[in-house]
Design brief:
The protein is α+β, with helices and mostly antiparallel strands. The chain has one domain. Helices cover about 25% and strands about 25% of the residues. It has three helices and seven strands, in the order H-H-E-E-E-E-H-E-E-E. A five-stranded antiparallel beta sheet has the order 1-2-3-4-5, with helices on one face. It has a two-stranded antiparallel ribbon with strand order 6-7. The termini are far apart. About 30% of the residues are buried.
Length: about 150
């Protein structure tokens, strides 16, 4: 019985991820659970976004109420990670890329992960030769790696 319940929860998380677009995923959350709280948004480089949300009524159909929804620059969902407590962006990137010493922190316990066809190893976005749509004179390296628009005075 416990394995069956765990499987249903895992399936529910995977179905959320398979909405494949952030807007559709959030609309599904609103429809199925009534609401969500947007906790924060973190962009790492030009092509990766992490959206941190809390779903107050998530249990018992999800393992916990804290999700990180990772997307590409077009809002395509890469993965959905479920945590028992709110997660910090630096800790999340430290977990993803443990050899990158610019990221620090410890994640809360991960209770579920669902990936889509958009997923790839995000550490590749952090290398000095990472792809960029910004000309070199208009970009600067972000803490941890990846490019962001240069701040001009």
């Amino acid at each position: 019985m416990l394995n069956e319940a765990s499987s249903l929860i895992s399936d529910r998380l995977q179905r959320l991820a398979e909405e494949c677009v952030l807007g559709s995923l959030l609309e599904s959350v609103r429809r199925d659970w009534g609401a969500y709280d947007l906790l924060s948004h973190h962009q790492q480089g030009e092509f990766h976004h992490d959206v941190f949300v809390r779903i107050p009524n998530a249990k018992p159909t999800l393992p916990a109420e804290y999700l990180v929804i990772s997307t590409n620059c077009n809002g395509g969902v890469k993965d959905v990670i479920c945590f028992e407590q709110p997660a910090d962006a630096s800790a999340l990137w430290h977990f993803r890329c443990p050899d990158n010493h610019e990221f620090q922190g410890t994640l809360p316990r991960i209770l579920g992960v669902a990936r889509t066809e958009h997923w790839f190893d995000p550490c590749g976005l952090l290398t000095p030769d990472a792809r960029s749509e910004l000309k070199p004179e208009f970009r600067e390296r972000q803490l941890g790696g990846g490019w962001c628009k240069k701040a001009f005075p």
